[in-house]
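Table S2 (continued). Query chain:
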Amino acid sequence: MEQRLTFRTGITRRHPLWKRAFDIVGSLFILVCCLPLFFAIAIIMIVFSERPIFFSQTRTGMHNKKFRILKFRTMKVSMHNKNSHTYAWEEGVPDYFQFKTESNENVTTIGKFLRKYSLDELPQLLNVLVGHMSLVGPRPEIPAITDLYSHKQVQRLLVKPGITGFAQVNGRSDINHGKKIEYDLYYIQHRSLRLDLKIIVATIIAVIKAKGAY
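Corresponding output:
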């Protein structure tokens, strides 16, 4: 059963309009600029790794709506086929929870490089174009996690998930779930074009430093 989402943000009604326009223009610009990189990654994966090139998975979007996220595959095909998650928390997702860890033997050699510089996320620009995601917003989680959200945690589903977000520029995979929720709710309350631009610039710096990405 879907949870009802309520949260006072003080955001004007015009916010979704500029946000969507920014997403379309921004994602198209990045796609055009990164097209040679897309082809290079695809060729390298075809030559040196297993197929398929892409990995698709169900994630939870705005207002609990499910969609299929697209990434460059970074894990062994056998592990993707067996990939399933079940959790049994009773009072929301624990603050200490971390979905990714630094040590993962199931990640391919090429996948480690793609994850280190977040290149595996580039295909999500297509998710942005079709309207499932935004350039900036809380990162989309799998339903096995969002279905167990507490009343406070579920509020991060009030906006479209993003390729990058306020939590990602404040620790990426190094921070636990509790801290991520704090950052995401701060973004929801204070989101603006200026904040989005700051997060994008901070994301570029974080990607170059390649810290906290597994």
